[in-house]
Amino acid sequence: MENRLEKIKKQLHASSYKLTPQREATVRVLLENESDHLSAEDVYLLVKEKSPEIGLATVYRTLELLTELKIVDKINFGDGVSRYDLRQEGAAHFHHHLVCIECGSVEEIQEDLLEDVEVIVEKRWKFQVKDHRLTFHGICHRCQKEHEKEKPKTKNASI
Amino acid sequence: MENRLEKIKKQLHASSYKLTPQREATVRVLLENESDHLSAEDVYLLVKEKSPEIGLATVYRTLELLTELKIVDKINFGDGVSRYDLRQEGAAHFHHHLVCIECGSVEEIQEDLLEDVEVIVEKRWKFQVKDHRLTFHGICHRCQKEHEKEKPKTKNASI
DNA sequence: ATCCGTGCAAATGATTTGCAAGTCG
DNA sequence: CGACTTGCAAATCATTTGCACGGAT
């Protein structure tokens, strides 16, 4: 944890930005809630718990900065807000998401899975792929199990 | 063209909505600019050319309605606006996009390309895929050619 | 002193909503 | 009549910006 913070500090310095207390608090919240896909407001509220003096605008500015430096990715699931997601350690590419249309949960997929598809796109459309965004919408494992409870599966469910 | 409009009219009626003149004008604009990824404002301006009395709110309401009925897809490329894209005739799935990070152009890919990936996701994550959204960010063919002009490629480009 | 970074409040821009009036079966 | 639609203006919500102050070099 601490070493990831150190690394981010170096990345900031490399572009001559400082890791101010506000920025550090913001990054810490991101690190501590890595799998949560927080919105700017979410981050703001969490940062505020430990550093009540911080302003919302500062959080926005910090998230924008981190996005520029590709330390986080700004994502959008179609609700009205942007969400911010830390990049994995050495990930060249963005990771994928599984959004459940029933319970709204979001799972992450770290595996690339798109190597083959990218080759096809580069060949067939002559498009030089730099990054991608892939989201699947569907029903998560938990919700599927919920359904089975309601309507218990028999050997021969049809009719 | 006309038959697609007819089809949409039926889809509306099936959910007991009418194809009012305003809605028809909006749908026509979408049909006539099918590959353009128009924002609500874009649609509004285009509709206004032929039907100046229409209100922006009506366009928003129509687009929302069409989205609900899955006649169009609401997409978001990360600029501040939502864009609206007609679904292909019988497409169960959403088509993909190639967004050029240099000139901003957007190409569409109708091919699925994700069959294999979806099988993996369903197996490995036990996630029942219903739809997907895939966008590649990179450099389009035209912009690549622009680069070659500036810096003509020799047999041995290095050094 | 100079810059960078911050907080606050005001501004912006996209989208939504309330409501009174219109349409059409 | 009565449900569905509309246009307009006002409201809302996320995000951005202007600006004067504060802290570090």
TrEMBL record, chains A, B:
- Gene3D superfamilies, alphabetically? 3.30.1490.190, Winged helix-like DNA-binding domain superfamily/Winged helix DNA-binding domain
Which residues span the membrane? Answer: none
Cofactor(s) this protein requires: Mn(2+); Fe(2+); Zn(2+)
InterPro entries attached here?
A: FUR, Fur_C, WH-like_DNA-bd_sf, WH_DNA-bd_sf
Presence of keyword Zinc:
yes
The record's annotation in CDD domains points to:
Fur_like
Q: A GO BP term, please?
A: regulation of secondary metabolite biosynthetic process
A Gene Ontology molecular function term for this protein is: zinc ion binding
User: Which residues of the sequence carry a binding annotation for Zn(2+)?
Assistant: 100, 103, 140, 143
What highest taxon heads this organism's lineage? Answer: Bacteria
Free-text remark on how the cofactor is bound: Binds 1 Mn(2+) or Fe(2+) ion per subunit.
Q: What positions does the entry give for Fe cation binding?
A: 115, 132
User: What keywords tag this UniProt record?
Assistant: DNA-binding, Iron, Metal-binding, Repressor, Transcription, Transcription regulation, Zinc
**Family assignment from sequence similarity:** Belongs to the Fur family.
Q: What is the name of the protein in this document?
A: Transcriptional repressor
Specify the species.
Answer: Fervidibacillus halotolerans
